[in-house]
């Protein structure tokens, strides 16, 4: 196993972990594939037989899971942003289950019961979640962070990806840079649950930026093995992202040098390096 923990145990449909053995039940997080590369995260309180879903762009995978588990109840729908592949199934799921819908206050989320702002706290399946405003991909995008002493985790939508970040459809490079810096202040062992299987394409770009980074090369090999075995590449951890994700590495001399070589000019700030990387990736 590498120092980055690239052999982090992960199952075909997600992983289970204990958040706080003294006070909280085991919480399982499972990936329900949707469309071509989306994941709808299914959070499960096995003791209460109650679950929550994150960004259900399609109701069908969730309804199929509930049909296969008739003794379970969907209580909560968490939404990170308004794009259709994240909200397309919300209304149908709410109508079928009566689940309570949470989403960003700054965006139009269908059937939303509670609009959330930065630093607001909610309780979902007995877990305390803090809302973090992360504009960039969209202007109102939010993430949900569970700060646990043993195993923190983050539901970050299309902001921070494994080895990448979301496109700038509405926000600016400076906004996305600041959003990623906020997320990067979480502990190294934070589990990162993003919503797309983009890891291999992101790693190809990361390797173009840092061809001599051995940790990127190792991650390329390991993720290729996982995908060949039909295993998902998520969750990742913040420690792995800091070592291999170019969008968290704007201050690294080798990354700055690659960005400057690509654009043909000197770059004054880390934000300019980030903006150059994002524009480069858009055309990669």
Short synopsis of the structure:
The protein is 32% helix and 25% strand. It is of the alpha/beta class.
Secondary structure blueprint with pairings:
Layout: E1 14-17, E2 27-34, E3 38-45, E4 50-54, H1 59-68, E5 73-78, H2 84-87, H3 90-97, E6 100-104, E7 114-116, E8 121-124, E9 127-133, E10 142-146, E11 153-157, E12 160-161, E13 164-165, H4 173-183, E14 191-194, H5 199-209, H6 214-228, E15 236-237, H7 238-244, H8 253-263, H9 270-282
Parallel strand pairs: 4-5, 5-6, 6-7, 11-14
Antiparallel strand pairs: 1-2, 2-3, 3-4, 8-9, 9-10, 10-11, 12-13, 14-15
List keywords for this structure.
32% helix, 7-stranded mixed sheet, disordered N terminus, single chain, alpha/beta, 284 residues, Metallo-beta-lactamase, Chain A, 15 strands, 6-stranded mixed sheet
Could you explain how this protein is built, in words?
The chain is α/β, with parallel strands linked by helices and 284 residues long. It is built from nine helices and 15 strands. It has one domain (14-245): Ribonuclease Z/Hydroxyacylglutathione hydrolase-like (Metallo-beta-lactamase, Chain A), CATH 3.60.15.10. The chain is globular and about 60 Å long. 32% of the residues lie in helices and 25% in strands.
């Amino acid at each position: 196993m590498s120092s980055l923990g690239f052999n982090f145990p992960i199952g075909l449909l997600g992983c289970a972990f204990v958040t706080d053995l003294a006070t909280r039940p085991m919480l399982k997080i499972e990936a329900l594939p949707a469309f071509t590369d989306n994941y709808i995260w299914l959070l499960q309180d096995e003791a209460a037989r109650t679950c929550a879903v994150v960004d259900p762009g399609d109701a069908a995978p969730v309804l199929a899971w509930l049909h296969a588990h008739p003794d379970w109840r969907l209580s909560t729908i968490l939404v990170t942003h308004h794009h259709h592949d994240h909200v397309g199934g919300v209304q149908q799921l709410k109508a079928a289950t009566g689940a309570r819908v949470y989403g960003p206050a700054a965006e139009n989320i269908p059937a939303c019961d509670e609009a959330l702002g930065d630093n607001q706290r909610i309780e979902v399946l007995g877990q305390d979640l803090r809302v973090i405003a992360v504009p960039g991909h969209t202007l109102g995008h939010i993430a949900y962070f569970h700060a646990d002493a043993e195993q923190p985790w983050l539901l970050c939508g299309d902001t921070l990806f494994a080895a990448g970040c979301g496109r700038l459809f509405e926000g600016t490079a400076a906004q996305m840079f600041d959003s990623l810096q906020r997320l990067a202040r979480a502990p190294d062992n934070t589990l990162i649950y993003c919503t797309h299987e983009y890891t291999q394409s992101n790693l190809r770009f990361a390797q173009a930026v840092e061809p001599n980074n051995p940790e990127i090369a190792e991650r390329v090999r390991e993720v290729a093995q996982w995908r060949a075995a039909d295993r998902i590449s998520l969750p990742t951890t913040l420690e792995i992202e800091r070592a291999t994700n170019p969008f968290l590495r704007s201050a690294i001399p080798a990354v700055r040098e690659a960005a400057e070589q690509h654009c043909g000019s000197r770059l004054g700030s880390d934000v300019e390096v980030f903006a150059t990387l994002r524009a480069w990736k858009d055309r990669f």
